[in-house]
Structure formats: C-alpha cells, structure tokens
Amino acid sequence: MSNATGCVGAPTIEPCPRCDALLGVEGVHVERVERGPTRLTVTVSTPSQVMGCPACGVVAEARGRRVRVLHDVPGEQPVVVRWRQRTWRCPDPGCGVGAFVEQHRALVRPRGSLTRRAVIWAIGQLRHDHATIAGLARRLAVAWKTLWRAVRPVLEDLAGDESRFASVTSLGVDEHVWHHGDRRTKGPKELTGMVDLTRDGGGRVHARLLDLVPGRSKKAYVDWLTERGEGFRAGIGVAALDPFGGYKSAIDEQLEDATAVLDAFHVVKLGTAVVDEVRRRVQQTTTGHRGRKGDPLLGIQTILRAGAENLTDKQWARLTRAIEANEAHEEVFVAWQCAQDLRAAYRAADLAEGRKRAEKVLNSFHTCPIPEVARLGRTLRRWSGAFLAYFTTGRQNNGPTEAINGLIELHRRLARGYRNRDNYRLRMLLAAGGLDLKPPPDVP
Ligand SMILES: [Zn+2]
To answer: Taxonomically, which superkingdom (predicted)?
Structure first.
C-alpha cells in the first residue's frame, strides 16, 4: 500500500491487505495517494500477469499501460482514481481482436467513469439520506448526467427483478399527479402506484412502493396485475384501494380471491373534503364572497381539518367563537362532527366497536340534511362492502399509504421536479423502498 512512495507489498495477484483496506477492491494495488488543493488522487494498478486473448486464447503481447480516470467515493474532497490500465494485443494476425484493455468489474464496469463502490455509495445516499443527484454529483465532482448514467442501469436492473414482488399478500393502489405540464409531451398527469402493505411476523406493515404506471384507470391496474402473473395474483389476500370504480373492477376481475378494502386514509380524506366544501359554501352564502382575511370561517380552516382529540383548549375556543359568530355556521360544525364520527370508526381501539360506528355512519349520513354529507353517505353505501371490510381484515391503518405519499412529496421537492417519467419512477421506487438493495447490487 501506499503513500507517495508506492506499495511496499510485493506486486502480486494475491490480495494485499493494506491496499484492500484503502480501496476495497481485491487485486488492485494503490501506487500513490496525492492530496491536491481540490481533490485526492489515488493511482492504482493491477500487477502484470500473463494474459490470453479473449477470443482465441493465444498469449497476448503486453502493450504497456494507459491511464483511465475514475471518480470514487468522496471524503472531505472529491476522490479521483487514476487507473493505470494494462493493454495488450493479440499476436495472431488472423484473430481480428487486435488491441484490448484490462477490465476489472469489481473496480468499474466497462466504459464506466465511476467506480463500482461509488455507484453503490450514491444509490445508498439517494435511498437512505434523501440525497439528490445534483448534490451527489457535486461531491463526486462529476456532471449530473455522468452520475445518473452510472446509477440508472443499476436501478433498472433492480426494478426489473421480479423477485421483489414475491410474498406480497396485501396490495394497495393509489394515484398521484406527477406533473402539471403538457399531456402531449409528458403523457398522463396521473400515475397509479402499487404499494406492498404486507405485514411481517409481528403484524407490522413496512410499506414499499412496488411500481408506478402511467394513467389512472382500470386498464393501468389490470395490465400491471396481468404482467405479474398468476402466482402473484393468487397470493393477494387483501387489496386496498381508494373509492375509484376503475380500481375496484380491476380487483374484481384480476384478484378474484382477494377482499377489497377501502383504504382508511382515503375515506378519512373524503370526510375532510366534505367539511371544506360545506365551509366554502356557507362562507359564500353568508358573506357573498370567498374567504377573506378576518372572516371567522377562514380562520378555522386548519382546525376543521384536524381530529377533535388533537385540538388544544385555545383551538377549541377559536372554533366555538367562529361557529357562534353566525347561526348559519352551525352547518359547518355539524359537517365537522360527521367527519369526526367517520374518523372515530377507524380510531376505535376495538374492531367490533369500530365496525358498529362505521355501520352507524352508513345508516345516517345519506339522510343528512347537509347535501355534501348526504352525498358522502351515498358514496359510502355504494362502497359498503369494501368500507366495512376494513374491520374484518384486521385493519389496514392509514400510516403506510400516507408514509409513501410523504416520501414521494419529499423527493419531488428535493429534486425540484422531474422531466422524465422513467427517471421519476426509478427514483421514487428507490426512495420508497421498492428496490431491494440487499445484497448490494452487482453493477453491470
Ligand atoms: Zn486472438
């Protein structure tokens, strides 16, 4: 190994423990380490040895070495690896191979410009430390494109590995808007996401985003389920979804044996949306305009989105004042209480108790004089089977879907948007646990 004077170990193809400690690549020796003002430069090589032509096997003529510059895992400074790569020539004029250069896949893939371990490091940073390609590229002292070109094929390989779908027994489906641009150039604004909601032995859910496909439609979900194959579909016992008919008919058609369950997260959101609608309508009819600063109903907008159990005394007082400011505001309060009843069904510690509360919602909301609440009641009655199934499938709590949505939001903000849908998919799968990095990926 090495300092400015070179490796003191004999040049041998045996692993050198000291060089291995520095570079971590067996058989690659460190010749020099130079600390410059902006970067650390490490010169490495493999010892000379007899080499056969890869095509005909004839012993090749050594043609000396040439330097290839690689970017390695940075420390305080970027690290550049100067690899003194060996070159050969096949002496057989009939062979056609001609000159060829040394390859060392443990160090770098052919034509790669980042070391294998730098690629693995970068993927780990993206996955676990919410890093961005731009930030990592800066630390590596490479262009954004250079880093992405090195990372992308590894993520594609991981995403293409069907074994990551094995042992999924509980499947969620959800959609989000991924761009607000032009549909003609970027395709549909919505993406349908499949989420693994399977419990571990201890009953905990470690949600993973399994995939993202363009569009929000029955077809998007059916096609994805078809691609996964019979074995995968037969293994799904519970299929969670938001109240969207397209997904439901995909489940009925493709997952005959699965129980469809309305995702608690989405149902609670419907309740919150109803309160918002009633507040806006009452606001408009009492004041003749949309919410303005100082309007009592606008002031309690956030309080109305919270759960009653989370309100402080001060918030309760504000809520009461705003409701009492005008008789017409009573309607907003009733809608809020309805949303609270809906939440309470999911929050009940006992599933039988929760189911009782859910049935009460089903039996009362649709006759409510507040039209928005009645409409929600009719929706829930249409979905009553999937709504009540939550309480018989051992509850699928809100956390997982929300957590995945949160990660997607975070990474979108960090990257300041994505132009390319395939890149977006790979990055979101990595961030939200859909790609299995253990054991570490083999960089092609
Ligand atoms: Zn040859």
So the answer is: Bacteria
Pairing of β 190-196 and β 208-214: antiparallel
Q: Which residue has the tokens 């027994």?
A: 169
Residues around the ion ligand 1 (C-beta < 5 A): 53, 55-56, 90, 92, 95, 97
Task: Write the CB contacts of 39 (distance below 8 Å, at least 6 apart in sequence).
Answer: 77, 78, 79, 80, 141
Is residue 290 left, alpha or beta, with left meaning phi > 0 and alpha meaning psi from -120 to 50?
Answer: beta
pLDDT digits (tens, 9 = 90+) for 63-113: 999 999 999 999 999 999 999 999 999 999 999 899 999 999 999 998 999
Tokens 């000291």 correspond to 18
Of the candidates 318, 321, 326, 284, which has an alpha carbon nearest to the alpha carbon of residue 302? 318
Which pLDDT does position 104 carry in this prediction? 92
> What span, in angstroms and rounded, lies between the C-alpha atoms of 80 and 73?
9
Q: How far is the CA of 94 from the centre of ligand 1 (A)?
A: 8
Where are the domains positioned within the chain? 17-119, 164-262, 265-389
Q: How far is the CA of 58 from the centre of ligand 1 (A)?
A: 6
Q: Which residues pair with 33 in a beta bridge?
A: 42
Name the DSSP class of 106: T
**Beta-bridge partner residues of 209:** 195
Question: For the structural domain made of 164-262, what CATH number should be given?
Answer: 3.30.420.10
Query: For residue 308, what are the contacts with CB-CB under 8 A and spacing of at least 6?
Result: 340
Burial class, 342, CB count within 10 angstroms (exposed 0-12 / middle 13-18 / buried 19+): buried
Measured CA to CA, the distance from residue 245 to residue 241 in angstroms comes to: 10
DSSP run (H or E) holding 265: helix 264-287
Q: CB within 8 A of 430, min separation 6: which ones?
A: 123, 126, 127, 155
Mean pLDDT for all residues in the chain: 88
